[in-house]
Design brief:
Blueprint: E1 18-20, H1 22-27, E2 33-38, H2 50-63, E3 68-74, H3 78-90, E4 93-99, H4 107-111, H5 114-120, E5 124-128, H6 134-147, E6 152-154, H7 162-181, E7 188-193, H8 197-208, E8 215-219, H9 224-241, E9 255-257, H10 270-283, H11 292-304, E10 313-318, H12 329-332
Parallel strand pairs: 2-10, 3-4, 3-6, 4-5, 7-8, 7-10, 8-9
Antiparallel strand pairs: 1-2
The chain binds pyridoxal-5'-phosphate (PLP).
InterPro entries: ACCD_DCysDesulf, D-Cys_desShydrase, TrpB-like_PALP, TrpB-like_PALP_sf
Organism: Rhodovarius crocodyli
Enzyme class: lyase
Amino acid sequence: MNLGRFPRVRLGHGPTPLEPLERLSRHLGGKVNIWVKRDDCTGLATGGNKTRKLEYLLADALAQGADTLITMGATQSNHARQTAAAAAKAGLACHLMLDSRAGVATDAYKHSGNMLLNGLLGAQVHHFPAGTDMPAQMLDLAERLKTEGRKPYVIPGGGSNPVGAMGYVNAALELVAQASALDLRIDHLVHATGSSGTQAGLVAGLVALNAGIPVLGFTVRQTREVQEGAVLALAEATAQHMGLPAGTVRPEHVAADSHYVGQGYGVPTQGMVEAVRMLAEQEGILLDPVYSGKAMAGLIDYIRQGRFTQGANVVFLHTGGSVGLFGYPDAFS
Ligand SMILES: *Cc1c(COP(=O)(O)O)cnc(C)c1O
C-alpha cells in the first residue's frame, strides 16, 4: 500500500510513540498488557486525533485553492481547535460553527479549554443552540463567503469523510510498523469513536494490510447499532477512495460498544472520572472528559470483567483532548 500518492500536508510530529503502560497494567491485575498509542502527542496546538485527518483535508483544500476553512462541532470540540491551528499554520482564515449539544453551560465550558485556544489561534467562532442543522449552517456560510469573493472549504464534523479518514489509514500503517519492530502481537486496538473517521480509517488500513488486529470503538454519543453502521459505511467509502476492491471491508470488521456513554455526549460519568484519575495517578497521562476518558472507562471495565484472555496485548489509542479538562473543573473537584 503506497499512501504517498495521496496529497498530504505535514501538521503533526509523527510517528507518535507506542508505549507500555506497566503501572496501569499491574494496577488492573496484571493479566492484560495495556499499551498506549500516543496520538494525544501529534503536536498541533496540544495535539489529538484530528491532526492526522487534517493533514489530508488541508492538502485537498489547498489543491482546490481554498483561502478559508469552515468546520463544525460541540463548544469544546477538539476537532475545531485543531482545525483552527491547521488554518493558522497554512495562513488560511477559519470559521468554527459550534453548538451546545453537550448541555453544559458553565463559564469554564463556554470560555476555557478549547474555546480559549480557538481565540488564540485566530478563528472566528459562531455559536448555535443544540439541535441546529449544522451542515446546513456551514453551507449557508460558505455561500455567503463566496459572494464576498472568498474560497471556502467545508470540513465535515470531526473531519470524517474518506479524505480525512486517510489520516487513520496512515496511522494503521504506522502502528503495524511499530508493532513489527517491537515483535509485539497486538490482540486488540481500542479507542473512543464519535464521528467515525478514526475507526473507519483504522479498519480500512488494518484490513488492507491483513494485520489481524480487531478494533473496538467505545461510543461517546450513538448506540452501538448506529455507530457500527456509520463506521462501516465510511470504512467502505475510504477503502474505495484507496482503490481497494468492493467488499474488502466487511461488517465483521466493525465493532462498537455504547455502554459507557452515560447520559449523553459530553456529560460526565463516574467511570470517566475514575479513568481520568487512574491514568493521571498511575501513568502521568492526561485523558479527556468527553472521549478518551469514557473509552478508558470501557477498557477498565472490560479488564475487570475478564473479557480479554490472560496475557492479551491491548493497545489503547489515546486520541487526545486533555485541554477539554479545563472546561469541566466541577467534574473533578
Ligand atoms: C474527535 C475525537 C474522537 C473521536 O474520533 P472520530 O474520528 O470523530 O470518531 C476521540 N477522541 C477525541 C479526543 C476526539 O477529539
